[in-house]
Specification:
- By secondary structure, this protein is α/β, with parallel strands linked by helices.
- It has a single domain, classed as Rossmann fold (3-Layer(aba) Sandwich).
- The protein contains eight helices and nine strands.
- The longest helix is centred in the last third of the chain and has 18 residues.
- The N terminus is likely disordered.
Amino acid sequence: MNQIHRAALKGEHYKAVPISCSPGLHEFSADLLGEFCQGRHIFEIGAGYGALTNRLLDRGWHVEPFDFDLQDWQGQVPVSFVDANNLSGSAFPAALQNAVSLELIEHLRAPLDFIDEVMERLQPGGCFLFSTPNTRSSISYLHYLLKRELFSFNRAMYWESGHISPIFDFIVEEHLNANGWTFKKYAAGRVETGSLIKDLFLKTFSKVFYRIFGGVDRYEKVVDQGLCLIYVVSR
């Protein structure tokens, strides 16, 4: 991969295949797909090394993975090329029973256009599960307080992980509502720094922050704690 997420660098794997997502995101997303999506056919956009593909295959899904960089593919089924910045210009299916895209939107030039292109292809009764960085998590607030920059969007993340498009939950949700699409929202993704002391501090800070500030936000009744937000969208 040209751009490697911190999770993969820290040694997160699914059956020896590196996971290029926040810890816990794959497991929770797979559970949500099984709960909300009809049928067992799914298209994965931004499949990375193939860890989520393999996990879904093990759960009985028929998975068709797509990615821009095919060099280090370790999935159990072949992967196809796609430019997620231009689905219409790629050899990408015109009809999707279900779709999933984790930790991809923040890498794209026009995230809302990408959502539109996937939803236009989604068949009635299908679902599209995607994630975004949680820019309003307690960890993100702490990071901004200390460094005056968003947790997932700064110069380092631009070069190390290719995060180029900051996106906020209320923008995503207003866009989904404006198009008449129904959705469910969840928070997931743990902070794992490799230091027990740091991890304990961040976990404690999150709980305290949540208890103090939960319920004061204009758009939400609570302040989400996960590093990522997950949307399960249907037509």
